[in-house]
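Why does residue order matter? Because the sequence determines the fold. Keep that principle in mind as you read this record.
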Amino acid sequence: MKFLQDELVKSKMSLRQVRRRMARYLKYFGLFCALLTLGLLAVYFLILRQPNYQEPTPTADQNSIVPDGGMWLKGDFHIHSRHSKDSTINPVSRIIGFAEDNGFDILAITDHDNHVFGDVRKNTWADPEFRSESVLLFYGAEWTTHRGHANTFSVKPYDHAQFFAARDSRDQDLLELKSKLGIHVSANHPIGGDPYSFSYDFADSLEVWNSVQFTSGAIVWDDLLKSGRMLPGRGGSDSHHGFPGVGEKKSDRTFERRFNYVGTPTTWLYAKSRTLEGALDAMEAGHMSVSANPYSPRLEFAADTDDDGAFDMMMGDNQRASTKPVTFKVQLVGNGAKDRPYKVRVIKDGAEFQVLNTDPSTGGVEFTDTPRAEERTYYRVEVYGKKNQYPEVGYSSLIGGNMVGLSNPIYFNFNAKF
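Structure:
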């Protein structure tokens, strides 16, 4: 104490001044500790700690309402690998390995063609990693043009450089070239960045659900359907970035991998065979639905037109309407379908027709309506609720909204040759 008093005399500071200074230091120290604690908690919850989830049960088809004779193929039809310059830490082997480990049946790796001057054949398709014994792989690319983006899908290699070179041609000329090459053109993200702006008569399908967040692509889709176009709708993750492997450094976009990757969303195709040809036929027929992720229940939508208790139409089908009422059924199949009720929004000719809730005991719900006898009518459904966790893409269920599933339409009195 004598020493402290001597020091105070030397420094000419009063005891009151010392106390004030110590109080100020303690205040700053307390603030520092609080900020450090908040920072550590943020690191824990946002980076180190994955969301809690219950291991889902395997998908079962006991409640399936689609006709016999086909099979469901689980896929993602918009993915970028290292052959796209805006992709990071995402080699082809990492994408395919992830798909194999998580039970996917089919993929389309669609790298930007303008990044390789259109020559995807000598880049993505020629990559030694572009192969799989369990996952079907479309030959495709993202056709990246001044008038928007579209994906191309093919069951065999084709001259994509020729298609890229014609990107500024008139739509009629492009339609002839597309037919010559034998490719499927799927319009990408119709609303948002780089929206598709070619003629939709040139498109074979539409990416209605792009990336983890369902946006307003359905607005464009409904306008096209109302005009008489039977344009199938699909999903695509549009994922670009992977996690670093051993010896690799993360990029400034690695964080996106935590919420958007293969399967956000997941597109389900009801195909007659587990082949690329079967998958493409199913896509062009509109026999498909989209789920938020592969752990979400699969959405099926069917109709009984003759009141015999059997469903004779499924998503994508078209037939002449009678004057009789039609029973429609929405059925969720697989993980979480019976855990809780889901909200079903029925869209008829672009407008909300009904809002229903699924029965938690069955995972389904029915409604009845009489399509107009002479005019076009279509029905499609959207399903909302709590999404199942996707542990391999841990934060996808936290930021992607509450859209669980999206069906393709059931059509009446449409001209299939439009």
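Helices lie at 2-11, 15-48, 92-101, 160-165, 171-181, 217-226, 276-285, 396-399.
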